Amino acid sequence: MVDAPRAALAGWLQSWRRVLHFAGYALAAAASRASYTPATRAVTVKQVYFTAWQVLPLFLLFSALLEATVIRVVIAASREYGIADYALDLVLRGLVLELIPFLTALFVALRSGSAIATEVALMHISGELEALERAGDDPLALEFVPRVAAAALSVVTLTVLSGALAIVIAYLSTYGLSPWGFAEFTHVVGKVFGVPTLLGFALKCLLFGAAVAVVPIAAGLEATAKVKSAPVAVLGGMVRLFFVLGLIEVVSLAARYI
To answer: Which of 131, 132, 210, 229 is the most interior residue, by most CB within 10 Å?
Structure first.
């Protein structure tokens, strides 16, 4: 009876060790210019197209509706509690800096995370990765690095576009079409988006993007030779991915406000 929890804990720790081990290799390879050959760039462009570009209009429409709703709620609540002067600050800090990056990472994870894990698991089961190694090709550089780079680029791009859209909606919700509030608005924006804040924001987006690909790939590599192991590996990878995304957000909040 005692051995079962110990075995489960050991397996859990082993899975996380493999994720961290692969993350180190993948991020080091992604940072190397030698990894970006014409073949890897082609795979990266293809992944960006399917992950971000293909759904960009729908994503921006959903973002606009969500942001307009949240901004109106914040402004109305601020007026009700007598803190209307801080409404714009709350919108920029809570919505643009925290909620949008996290929701964008979740969106990309739901769209591509399980697909990446399934694809890698099937490549591993079919022996395609081993065939690449026998042919003298590096699967890490040829198949995995492009997916990590594409996921990071997709998360950063969608976050920036959605954040810019939120800033425009915030101005229109606060001042309407009048140009007279522009000076005050830019003052608040400049105060909120200082250099340290922007650096932390960029780092968080990059970590989100890397996690969306690294964790599913590591999960896919855990699949055994049996096809039935693929769904188990994918499910475990998605659970770990949501845990990692939540952990990144919590650490970001703690570093910023504690």
So the answer is: 210
Q: Which residues of 238-258 are buried (b: 16+ CB within 10 A; e: fewer)?
A: bebbbebbeebbeebeeeeee
Tokens of 155: 């998360």
Average pLDDT over residues 39-53: 86
Q: How many CB atoms lie within 10 A of CB 211?
A: 28
* Inter-helix orientation angle 195-220/100-108, to 10°: 20
Q: Where are the domains of the chain?
A: 37-257
Q: Hey, what are 21's tokens?
A: 């081990």
- Reported residue count of the chain is 258
Q: What is the pLDDT of residues 49-60, one digit of tens each?
A: 888 899 999 999
Burial 101-111 (b: 16+ CB within 10 A, else e): bbbbbbbbbeb
pTM for the full predicted model: 0.88
Closest CA to 150 of 236, 58, 43, 242: 43
